[in-house]
Design a protein that fits this description.
This protein has 15 helices and nine strands. By secondary structure, it is an alpha+beta fold.
Length: 394
């Protein structure tokens, strides 16, 4: 049975017995307006599983998002300025893993970063023995060179070992060979495995990383990450957060049928908030180009059906869309009319709900400024509805 709150370091590897695991990265948005920021409560644990300093992962997010970061090692506070969704940061973490963790030769994550005498950063792989260079054009490399990783014991390169560009590794530490290398690896794996279990329960349960920050709510969110759909361990958890995290983990393979089955299993099919969670979590930046609207339209329609009698479900549908384009993927804001039109033509969105939403700014789902921006983008669709009504009257 899969461990709750733990995923494969390589999320493209669909193997329950894959031994390289890490905690699911958690996020919490704090502040408002210009002071809004995204806190990553368990960044230290995630980075530890990757054998990288948490400064590197957090700084990488800042480089990719063009945002300032706060790296407070003593207080264990890792912050990226601005509001960023957990989905977006997890996608960036995958990029970091590919660029600065995985061996370029065998794609194994069991690597250490070493800096050569010529200031080149190499990934030293303990699995295949290769030393492969990272992309030195990335901004993070400058930060790494100024804040080098702590020296670890290094293998003494044997004859025939390939080093990219003939770089000579930095001296330091005694060579490790034969059985000593195996012992060191075993100790390291056992240590990391032992530390993963409390990551999602004891350590994180006291962190404030959601709207409800009391210990009970936090513990529920953590436990809701179980990847075993047949497990009874998740009974009694917050079903909405369990649904959100289940979708984020299984989204690549999700279908209308599998999502519906999960919702029914959680007993929240009739809840209007379920619609919001599904919309903001299931769709991605490819909501239009990837034809996701068409793919999941039957599921959304069934969730809000019959639309005429479920006003709250309509509001939740539009609220989820606000969070999707206003928070998760701001670059989609200009596509709001296309999304609304797609739902309208599929009999998912009602005309009355769209008009009322388009003329009443609300901060129920997002900040007021974001709410205004999304509604402003929807004006062509609302105008089209008004003109259609005028033609009908004539």
């Amino acid at each position: 049975m899969a461990t709750a709150g733990v995923v494969n370091i390589r999320r493209d590897v669909d193997d329950k017995f894959y031994r390289y695991r890490m905690p699911v990265m958690l996020t919490k948005v704090e502040g408002r307006g210009n002071g809004i920021k995204t806190v990553i409560p368990n960044m230290t644990d995630v980075a530890k599983a990757l054998s990288r300093p948490p400064q590197y992962t957090t700084k990488f997010f800042g480089c990719e998002l063009g945002a300032q970061t706060i790296l407070d090692d003593k207080a264990d506070r890792w912050i990226v300025n601005g509001e960023h969704s957990a989905t977006r940061l997890r996608e960036l973490l995958d990029v970091f893993i590919d660029k600065f963790v995985l061996c370029a030769s065998c794609k194994n994550p069991e690597t250490d970063l070493i800096i050569t005498k010529t200031d080149t950063i190499l990934r030293d792989c303990k699995a295949c023995g290769q030393q492969t260079k990272v992309d030195m054009r990335h901004k993070l490399t400058t930060f790494i060179l100024k804040n080098p990783p702590k020296k670890t014991k290094k293998r003494k390169p044997s004859e025939g070992t390939t080093k990219e560009n003939g770089e000579e590794a930095e001296e330091g530490g005694s060579p490790i060979d034969g059985d000593d290398d195996d012992d060191e690896l075993t100790k390291r794996l056992q240590s990391e495995a032992a530390e993963l279990a409390p990551v999602d329960q004891a350590a994180i349960a006291t962190e404030e990383w959601s709207g409800n920050t009391d210990p009970t709510s936090v513990a529920k969110r953590v436990h809701a990450l179980s990847l075993d759909d047949n497990s009874d361990e998740d009974k009694g958890d917050d079903p909405m957060e369990q649904l959100r995290l289940w979708i984020e983990i299984n989204r690549d393979d999700a279908t209308c049928e599998t999502v519906k089955a999960k919702i029914e299993d959680l007993g929240i099919w009739e809840k209007h908030k379920t619609v919001q969670i599904v919309v903001e979590s299931l769709f991605t930046s490819k909501v239009l180009t990837g034809k996701e609207l068409d793919k999941y339209a039957p599921l959304i329609k069934e969730l809000v059906s019959p639309v005429e009698t479920k006003e709250k479900h309509q509001k939740a549908l539009l609220g989820g869309m606000e969070r999707l384009v206003g928070v998760n993927y701001p670059e989609l804001t200009e596509k709001v009319p296309h999304i609304l039109m797609s739902w309208y033509q599929a009999d998912i969105l009602t005309e009355d709900a769209a008009k009322q939403w388009g003329t009443h700014v609300s901060k129920k789902y997002v900040d007021r400024d974001i709410s205004k921006r999304v509604r402003k983008a929807s004006e062509p669709f609302i105008k089209w509805l008004d003109e259609a009504d005028d033609e009908d009257e004539e």
